[in-house]
Amino acid sequence: MSEFWDFYATRGPIDEVLAAARRKRLRAVVAAASEVGGREPSWVYVYAEGKQVARLGELVLYFFDHKGAAWSFELWRSGESIGQGTFGENPETGAEDEGFEGDLEATAAALGVPVEKLEKTFASPDSSKFLRLLGLSLPPFGISELLRDAPKGVSRLSDTGDD
Fold first, then answer.
1. Which candidate, 107, 124, 126, places its Cα nearest to that of 115?
2. Domain residue extents for the chain
3. DSSP type of residue 18
4. Where are the beta strands (DSSP E) in 42-94?
5. Are strands 154-156 and 99-102 parallel, antiparallel or unpaired?
6. First CA to last CA across the chain, in angstroms?
7. pLDDT digits 0-9 by tens, 95-132
């Protein structure tokens, strides 16, 4: 199990996400939520490096767990950042509790969750409430760990032998 967990997630049919990643010429591994422990089937996990992933779909979430001591996220809608935050502190990763920045109402609406519930998740350096609210989970690997042995181009996790 990795000490750091990070991933991108977007919504939509996995075949459309795979096609979009190929059009953008990403080096990426794409996984249905069910392949990595997520409960919300509309989420598709995307393991890729680089900010160009933010334009992969209408809604793209980046999530990073700092060894359980802190967590951060950024949410893009149509390629524009609408909300981000870091909660908790971890000197090893440089995480400092900066709270939420952006449009809280737009972020909650885009994620399909009540503002009050989203805001409550920000009170803890533990990311589990945030992930549970969205129907996501920490996969057993992070981006760099998974991409290290992934084939070039775009592949589906179930085709890589890592599931």
1. 107
2. 5-160
3. H
4. 43-48, 59-66, 70-77, 80-88
5. unpaired
6. 13
7. 889 999 999 999 999 999 999 999 999 998 899 999 99
Mean pLDDT of 79-100: 91
Residue 154 pairs in a beta bridge with 28
Query: pLDDT digit string (tens) for 36-45?
Result: 766 666 788 8
Task: Indicate the pTM of the whole model.
Answer: 0.84
Question: In the numeric block, which tokens belong to residue 32?
Answer: 């249905």
pLDDT of residue 1: 38
Rounded alpha-carbon distances, angstroms, from residue 108 to 34, 77, 80:
23, 12, 15
Contact between 76 and 102 (Cβ < 8 Å): no
Give the residue-averaged pLDDT of 141-158.
69
> Rounded to whole angstroms, how far apart are CA atoms 153 and 159?
13
| Short-list 20, 143, 11, 4, CA closest to 76 | 11
- Which tokens sit at 156? 């589906």
